[in-house]
Structure formats: structure tokens, C-alpha cells
Amino acid sequence: MKILFYQDDTLDLNLDGLVTGLNSASNGRITFREGTARFHISGSSIRYSGSYEQLSRSFVKQAEGADLSICFTKTPYDNNYFFSWTRKTNNCLVLFVGTTNHTAT
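Now predict its structure.
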């Protein structure tokens, strides 16, 4: 299984460290990689499915080559969710802002 990680310009995560740690823990059963295509959400919020339709062709092509692509952003969802997934491209968009409003403490 191949999993790609992406982040947009709203975040500065250490994806290299995340990938290294996960690859070490998975013992080769799952391959984790940092995606190289640009991931960008247009507008001030994520709309399902409109935001997925606006992703660049190069990003979609690269993401379709993986079993799962996980994309991190601070851009909020218009429906107050903190993640969504689409089977068409195996993309999961994960929100990293205001998550205390979405999860139990």
C-alpha cells in the first residue's frame, strides 16, 4: 500500500519526519511518501465536492497513483467537518484549525 502526504501553504508541518517515522513503524508493509505535486485549495473554505474539482491536474494524477492521499490544511470546511474523503481520487483532506469545535475533549 502506498500513502502520500501533502500540505498546502497554510501549514508548515514536518512531513519528512512524519514519513520517516511511519515508514520505520510499518516495516515496509505500507509505504509512506511526501507528495511532490502542489496541493492548493482555492477560496476561503473547502466545499465538498467543489474544492476537489478545483485541484490541479498534476496533483490529481499523482494522487491517483497512490492507494490513499492525505492532504493537510488550515482552510476550514464550509460544513464544519474536519476531514472528508473522496473515493474517486482516494484523497482525504484533513483540517488543522478549530478542531476543538469538532472533537470531544
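The two ends are 32 Å apart (CA to CA).
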